[in-house]
Recover the amino acids of this structure.
């Protein structure tokens, strides 16, 4: 049952990045005549230059570090899971072998 | 005889592990020291050196799973079923790596985390097919029917692999084509770093499939012993 839950969580995890990261295009703004008149009243009377960066700054270094960290973290988790599975199976094999030996002696 | 074979396997395993670890060290040096920073994208382009070989390792995992499943369906040999399970798990691991590292690069390069590009969509589809395979196989001790159904699912997943590969060439999308012959290619240092990474990831995928298949065979043996005990 735990393994089934783990597999379902894995499946959901795969869906999360596309769902979370998908971006829909911006809705076109509806313009009515009243708003146009208001806008005409409030039209700009001067132009002022921006201060600081005028474009979105995306930190490439942080994204790259995150990507490499994800790779190592997932590999580590996979190895830990496999180690747990191997230990559990070895213990069960030993127990079953002992039980079979015991039932043979009887 | 079995002991000698086991000892030989252990030696090959250790050699492969050592070679892969050494290769990863050299690959990281090539990626971060030798390969230049890309002119337009900057340092974020270095994700490419792990992202693309991970996709390749995903193909290996899913391919091994499909081959193991096909042979299992023909011979009904549990060893091939173990190989199929191992391939599916390792392939899904690398698919998850691809699906998580790709958006980090895309955010910088395309301005969005995800877009329904043909290659991205078909990769997600392959991941979902093999996640379904693993969900099916995780339902306790799989019986013969579950194993056969899962094998069919793995073969169905195999159909998606060429779609992922050729989607970039056949359909219009935004995914780069620098190493598929349509783009301007890479600088020689970049090729070296990528080539080394491909070899390192091949070794890693082989090691993981090998280890996981070995555990799966032990689980099969344990299930057989349980059955034997029940019938006594």
């Amino acid at each position: 049952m735990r393994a089934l839950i783990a597999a379902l969580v894995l499946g959901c995890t795969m869906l999360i990045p596309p769902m979370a990261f998908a971006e829909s295009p911006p809705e076109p703004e509806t313009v009515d005549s009243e708003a146009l008149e208001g806008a005409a009243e409030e039209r700009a009377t001067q132009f002022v230059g921006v201060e600081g960066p005028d474009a979105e700054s995306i930190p490439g270094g942080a994204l790259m570090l995150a990507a490499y960290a994800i790779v190592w973290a997932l590999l580590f988790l996979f190895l830990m899971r496999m180690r747990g599975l191997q230990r559990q199976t070895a213990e069960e094999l030993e127990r079953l072998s002992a039980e079979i030996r015991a039932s043979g002696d009887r | 005889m079995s002991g000698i074979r086991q000892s030989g396997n252990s030696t090959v395993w250790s050699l492969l592990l050592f070679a892969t670890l050494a290769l990863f060290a050299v690959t990281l040096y090539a990626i971060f020291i030798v390969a230049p920073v890309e002119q337009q994208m900057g340092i974020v382009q270095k994700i490419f050196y792990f992202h693309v070989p991970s996709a390749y390792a995903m193909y290996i995992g899913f391919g091994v799973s499909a081959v193991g499943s096909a042979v299992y369906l023909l011979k009904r040999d549990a060893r091939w079923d173990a190989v199929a399970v191992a391939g599916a798990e390792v392939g899904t691991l690398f698919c998850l790596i691809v699906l998580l590292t790709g958006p980090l690069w895309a955010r910088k390069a395309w301005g969005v985390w995800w877009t329904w590009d043909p290659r991205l969509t078909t990769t997600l589809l392959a991941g979902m097919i093999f996640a379904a395979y693993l969900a099916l196989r995780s339902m306790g001790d799989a019986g013969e029917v579950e194993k056969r159904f899962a094998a069919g699912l793995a073969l169905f997943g195999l159909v998606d692999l060429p779609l992922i590969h050729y989607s970039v060439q056949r359909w219009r999308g935004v995914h780069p084509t620098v190493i598929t012959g349509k783009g301007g290619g890479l600088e020689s240092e970049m090729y070296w770093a990528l080539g080394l990474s491909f070899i390192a990831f091949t070794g890693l995928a082989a090691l993981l499939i090998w280890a996981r298949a070995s555990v799966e065979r032990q689980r099969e043996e344990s299930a057989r012993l349980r059955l034997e005990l029940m019938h006594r």
Notes: Chain B touches chain A through 55 residues (CB under 8 Å). The two ends of chain B are 30 Å apart (CA to CA).
